[in-house]
Amino acid sequence: MGLSDALVWALAIFAYFFLGAYHQLGTQVIIMIILALSLDLAIGYSGIESLGHAVFFGIGAYAAALFALNVLSEPLTGLVVGGLAAGAFGFVTGLLVLRVRGLTQVILTIAIGAVVLQVATTWKSVTGGDDGLAGYQVAPILGRYSFDLYGHTAYLYSLCVLAFVFALARILVNSPFGYVLRGIRDNDQRMRMLGVPVAARLLLIYSISAAIAGVAGAISAQVTGLVATDSLSFLLSGNVLIMLLIGGMGRLTGAFIGGIIFVIFSDRAAAIDPFNWLFMLGGLLILAVRFTPQGVGPWIDRMGGYLLDRRRKP
């Protein structure tokens, strides 16, 4: 575990005691971290180029909300339903998306997201259309812990889910399967020559990535009590990619660092100047790409190693 790994987990745990009135913002940070983790599995570890990952987030959110509205309001079951719905959609669309590479693949992911967004907007009887889907109740977690107005329960709930997802992702990327994915990312033709079923491996990780994004969407639906069509938007897909660029791709804690910086910076910038905050965000991205092209995570590890070396010297 590098210095950046230790820092982000310590920050996530201790933040609960110091956030005060900002637990809802902290919950939003955690949700975006889970979504960024899912995208990193696809892009950073597998080389799947996607600019439509928000579609899985939105499908997970709608699935969890509809499940709570029509079937069962128990949140953990809704979480599983959201993940399974998004994972199944990822499997089906992956059969098409993974047949191509490069720019064509990017355009396909955008197109699929646009189609699903249009369906959600027009199918008002199910999704609520532009008004969003609301009016559903979520039961207390394990029958005891209700979602309170200030977001204390939501923060701990989402943090526990993040810990589970992170542990699963770490096991995955450090397994033989994870090393095969890196090989496919670096040279898929060579992996084919070695007898690796490249298409099947990519389809599996794409489905897993979609399922994790769906879990993030399900949490969002449960803690906010509303699912809007912007949960499927291209803007959200772009924002998550920016988080990875800031934090660093191909390293799980990059999603943590990028998510924390992006969400908090966006919130503060919008509070300072509601009309021009996007200029500030653009400036942040330019600085990040210019001075930390591999992301902030590796830079933190290098600085930590440098400071430790200096302390060890007599």
Automatic annotation (TrEMBL):
Subcellular location: Cell membrane
Keyword entries, A-Z: Cell membrane, Membrane, Transmembrane, Transmembrane helix
Recorded superkingdom: Bacteria
A Pfam entry, by short name: BPD_transp_2
Sample GO molecular function, one term: branched-chain amino acid transmembrane transporter activity
Origin organism lineage: Bacteria, Pseudomonadati, Pseudomonadota, Alphaproteobacteria, Hyphomicrobiales
Stretches that traverse the bilayer: 7-23, 29-48, 55-73, 79-98, 105-123, 154-173, 194-220, 240-265, 277-300
Organism: Bradyrhizobium zhengyangense
Topology class, membrane: Multi-pass membrane protein
Any GO CC annotation of this UniProt entry: plasma membrane
Record flagged with keyword Transmembrane: yes
Protein name: Branched-chain amino acid ABC transporter permease
